[in-house]
Amino acid sequence: MRLKFFFLAVLLAACFTSGTVLAESIKIDGSTTVLPVAQKVAEAYMKEHPEVNIAVSGGGSGNGIKALIDAATDIADSSRFMKNEEVKLAVDKGTYPVPFAIAHDCIIPIVNPSHPLNNVTMDQLKGIYTGEIKNWKELGGPDGAIVVISRDTSSGTYEVWEEKVLKGARVFPGALLQASSGAIVQAVSKNKNAIGYVGIGYLDKSVKGISVNGIPGTEETTLNGTFAISRPLFMFTRGWPSGDTLKFINFVLHPQRGQKYVKEAGFVPLY
Length: 271
Known about the structure:
The protein has ten helices and eleven strands. By secondary structure, the protein is an alpha/beta fold. The chain has two domains: 136 residues, D-Maltodextrin-Binding Protein, domain 2 (3-Layer(aba) Sandwich), CATH 3.40.190.10; 118 residues, D-Maltodextrin-Binding Protein, domain 2, CATH 3.40.190.
C-alpha cells in the first residue's frame, strides 16, 4: 500500500513538473511607440492562452534591440529597422535577428491645443529642431520662444525623425529630451510654446497634431505614402521563432485577430 501511494505521489509530481515545463513565458522589450500595440495584443493572447505569461516593457528601440542581442528578451519591439552594426553584433553572438513588420505608423508634429499653428513645412521643422528658427513669430505665430521637445537618441522614433526631417543633422543642444512618447505628449500639453513629435497612436485631446507640407498624418496618408514622415513598426526575434513565440507572432500578424488590436491602439494595420 505504501509503495502504491509512493508511485502515485511520483506520478502526480511528474504531472505538475511536466505542466510547469510546458508552460511558457515570453518577454517583450523595446520601443515605447510599439508598446501600446504589444500590450493590447499580449493581453488578448493571454486570455486565449492562460498557460502563457507575457511580460511587456518599453525602454526604447535601441534598448530592446540590445536586450535581444544579449538574449535578455524574446522579442524586441522597434520603431526602426535594425542597423547593420546591430545585426553584425547579434550574429557574432550566435543569432540572426528576424524582422516582422507588425503595423504602419506616421510621426506627427504636435503642439499645445491653444497654439494657432496648423501646418508646418519639412524645412520649417528642420529649422525648429536644429535651432535656426527660435521664435513662433518667424512662422507667423505669436511672439514666444519655441520650446523644442525631442525623444532621446536611443529612440527609434528619434532616429526616423533624424533621417527624414533633420536629414542627418543633430537636434540643437537646447532641446528637452524625453524618454518616451507619453512623456512628450505630457510635456507639450502643459506648455503653450512647445512642439514635439509622436507616433499616430499617441495623439489625444491633450495635444494638437499639425499637418506637414499641407498633408495631415492619417491612416490613409500613411498607407498611400503621401505623409512625409511614415514608417513601419517591427517586432524582432532571435532567429526564426518557435513554440509560443511563433504562435504569438502569428497572432499579431493575423488580419482578424492581432491586427484589430493595432487599430484599437491607434496605429495603422498592415491590411
